[in-house]
Write a structure and sequence with these properties.
- This protein is α+β, with helices and mostly antiparallel strands.
- The protein has two domains: 44 residues; 167 residues, no CATH class.
- Helix content is 29%, strand content 26%.
- It is built from three helices and nine strands, in the order H-E-E-E-E-E-H-E-H-E-E-E.
- The strands form two sheets. A five-stranded antiparallel sheet has the order 5-4-6-7-8, covered by helices on one side.
- The chain starts with a helix and ends with a strand.
- The model has no long low-confidence stretch (mean pLDDT 87).
Length: 223
C-alpha cells in the first residue's frame, strides 16, 4: 500500500511538472509574440510620415499659419479652403458656390472671420465690391473660383482684389481656375497665387481647365 501511494504521488508530481513546463512555454511564446508585435507597431509608427496642418507637405515655422486650398473642378466639385487645420469652405460644408469663394481670417490670431461666395456668372458684382471694401486692415483673404469667376467682374472689383496682393486678377477670364491668398493692407504682391487659363486645347475637363491647388505658410501679422 505504501509503495502504491509513493507511485501515485510521484505520478502526480510528474504530471504537475509537465503541465507547468508546457504552460510556461506557452506564456513565453505569448509574451514573445506580444513584444514582437509591439516592436513592429513602434517601427511602423516611426516610419509613418508626419501629418502637418491642413495636410501640407512640411511644417510651417513659428508665427506662420498653415493653409491649403483648391479651386473647383468644372461645375461639379466645389473649392476647398483650409487654414490651421480648420476647413473653412468646402462642398462637404455646403458653403461654396458658383463664382468667387472668399474666406477671411484674422491676421494676428488665425481665427476665421467670415466666408462668402459671389456668383460672377448670373449674379451682381455690386455686393462683391461692397464686401471687398468692408475688409479690415490686417485680414488674411483667401479666394478660389468655382465654375466661372470672371464674367461679371468689372474694373473696380479687379482693382480692389489687386490691392490685396493679386497680380493675376487683371487677366482672370471666363471659366479660368484661380486661387489666391493675400491680405488687406499688404505692401507687396502676394507670392500665393495660382492661375490656369480656360483653353479648349489644354482643358482637362470639357469646357474647364484642371483643378489648381496651392499650399503654404502665411506670416502672422505683427504689431
Amino acid at each position: 500500500g505504501a509503495a502504491k501511494l509513493v507511485v501515485v504521488i510521484a505520478i502526480f508530481l510528474l504530471t504537475f511538472y509537465v503541465i507547468s513546463q508546457v504552460f510556461e512555454i506557452k506564456m513565453d511564446a505569448n509574451l514573445g509574440h506580444i513584444f514582437a508585435r509591439s516592436a513592429l507597431d513602434a517601427a511602423a509608427r516611426s516610419t509613418k510620415p508626419p501629418r502637418y496642418k491642413c495636410g501640407i507637405s512640411k511644417a510651417c515655422p513659428e508665427k506662420h499659419f498653415a493653409f491649403k486650398m483648391a479651386s473647383g473642378a468644372a461645375n461639379v466639385v466645389g473649392p476647398k479652403i483650409c487654414v490651421e487645420d480648420n476647413v473653412l469652405m468646402s462642398g462637404v460644408k455646403n458653403n461654396v458656390g458658383r463664382g468667387i469663394n472668399v474666406a477671411l481670417v484674422n491676421g494676428k490670431t488665425g481665427e476665421p472671420l467670415d466666408t462668402k461666395f459671389f456668383d460672377m456668372w448670373g449674379g451682381d458684382v455690386a455686393p462683391f465690391i461692397e464686401f471687398l471694401k468692408s475688409i479690415q486692415d490686417g485680414t488674411i483673404v483667401l479666394m478660389g473660383t468655382y465654375d466661372d469667376g470672371a464674367t461679371k467682374l468689372n474694373e473696380e472689383a479687379r482693382k480692389l482684389i489687386s490691392e490685396l496682393g493679386s497680380t493675376s486678377i487683371t487677366n482672370l477670364g471666363f471659366r479660368d481656375n484661380w486661387v489666391f491668398c493675400g491680405g488687406k493692407g499688404i505692401k507687396t504682391k502676394s507670392p500665393f497665387e495660382q492661375h490656369i487659363k480656360n483653353n479648349k486645347d489644354t482643358n482637362k475637363y470639357e469646357g474647364w481647365p484642371e483643378v489648381v491647388e496651392m499650399e503654404g505658410c502665411i506670416p502672422q501679422k505683427q504689431d
